[in-house]
Amino acid sequence: MKIFKEVSLADSLSVLNALLGFSALAHAVYDFEKSFKFFYLSLIADGLDGWVASKTEKSKLGKELDSLADTVSFSLYPAFIIFLKDEKLFVFSSILLAFSILRLARFNVLNSRNFLGVPTSINAIFLTSLVRIGMSFEVLAICVLFFSVLMISDLEYRRIEGVPLIPLGLLLLLAILFVEICYVLIALSLIYIIYPGVKTCEKLLQHLRRV
After folding, report:
1. What is the pLDDT of residues 172-199, one digit of tens each?
2. 3-62 confidence digits (pLDDT tens)
3. CATH of domain 3-210
């Protein structure tokens, strides 16, 4: 089969990301806590995928495979566990899934070094961490709506690559063992998410001072 000749090492990591995301989904049904472990491993696989792709030759399948894998791990899984957390959140989970798919589809047709809208992986880290620490229905509903909109916004976000991926990977490994690490993940996600807004305000203030 010719397709296997076109699959690079980075592509294999994308497929691994999807398989780990599916494992997280499957375990969420009967072992809610264990599902997070597979989710964190899918994030690590996604980070390794990007790093390997930057060091090797790009494949024809790379971008599409990456987005398809992210649909499973960072779109469907967060939406599913939010619904499992509280059935009354079904509408919010549906919005999250729909906006995540839109975000990934737009990514595939853009030729940009950075991201437009919050990356699905960062959004997934933030929302799943809220679920895991037992955040209330009201907070989850508001956060899902707000951050779903941010995913399809025109705010520009920098890629996380290089050295910062190492401590993030270590944090994810620690999160497998300790629920408390979720608070650190929430804080880091929020810093990343609000950064473009802070930069925009700074530029606006600078413009007003000139006027």
Report:
1. 999 999 999 999 999 999 988 887 655 5
2. 666 677 888 899 999 999 999 999 999 889 999 999 999 999 998 888 787 777 677 777
3. 1.20.120
Q: Where are the beta strands (DSSP E) in 11-90?
A: none
How would DSSP label each residue in 111-178? --SSEES--HHHHHHHHHHHHHTT--HHHHHHHHHHHHHHHTS--EE----STTHHHHHHHHHHHHH-
Token pair 């009201």 is found at 138
Backbone φ, ψ for residue 153 (5° rounding):
-75, 175
- Comparing CA positions, the residue from 21, 111, 95 lying closest to residue 58 is 111
Of 176, 98, 193, which is closest to residue 132 (Cα–Cα)? 176
Closest CA to 11 of 66, 82, 55: 66
Give CA–CA dist 51/200, Å, rounded.
29
**Which of 100, 92, 90 minimizes the C-alpha distance to 122?**
100
For 130, residues 6+ apart whose C-beta sits below 8 A from its C-beta are 139, 140, 143, 186
- Sequence ranges of the domains in the chain: 3-210
